Amino acid sequence: MFVHIARLCYTDAMTKTAQRILDIAEKLDPERQRLLLEIAEDIARPAPFFDDLAVADREDLDRSIAEADRGEGVTQAELDRRLNAVLPSSRK
């Protein structure tokens, strides 16, 4: 059903890729059209930042959060000192 609605909404601005998707979807039975729609919606849905992290990066972030929760780490002043030591100063 969504294929027919999409065809009604078709404009000259629609890309060739979108047209190919419609052509493919039109050949599918309704259940497979529904599955295709679900896949497209999943792809289009923005993922939270955490979900896009690699496993190692996620583990590093988890450790850092745990350290901060325990009050470990450096003070803002220490962080500023360390950053100023390695980054060129933009203050002249």
Brief overview, please?
By secondary structure, the protein is an all-alpha fold. The chain has helices at 2-8, 16-26, 30-44, 49-52, 55-69, 76-86.
Head-to-tail CA distance between termini: 64 Å
The helix-and-strand class reads mainly alpha
Number of helices: 6
**Using DSSP, what is the number of strands?**
0
Report the order of strands and helices.
HHHHHH
Shape, principal axes of CA atoms: elongated
- Percentage of residues assigned to helices: 55-70%
Largest sheet: none
What Rg is obtained from the alpha carbons, in whole angstroms?
Answer: 25 Å
Average of the residue pLDDT scores = 82
Report strand %: under 5%
Low-confidence stretches: none
How are the SSEs ordered, and which strands pair?
Layout: H1 2-8, H2 16-26, H3 30-44, H4 49-52, H5 55-69, H6 76-86
Describe the fold and architecture.
This protein has helices spanning about 1-10, 15-25, 30-45, 50, 55-70, 75-85. The chain has about 90 residues and is mainly α. It is elongated, with a radius of gyration of 25 Å.
Please name the defining characteristics of this protein.
6 helices; mainly alpha; 92 residues; elongated
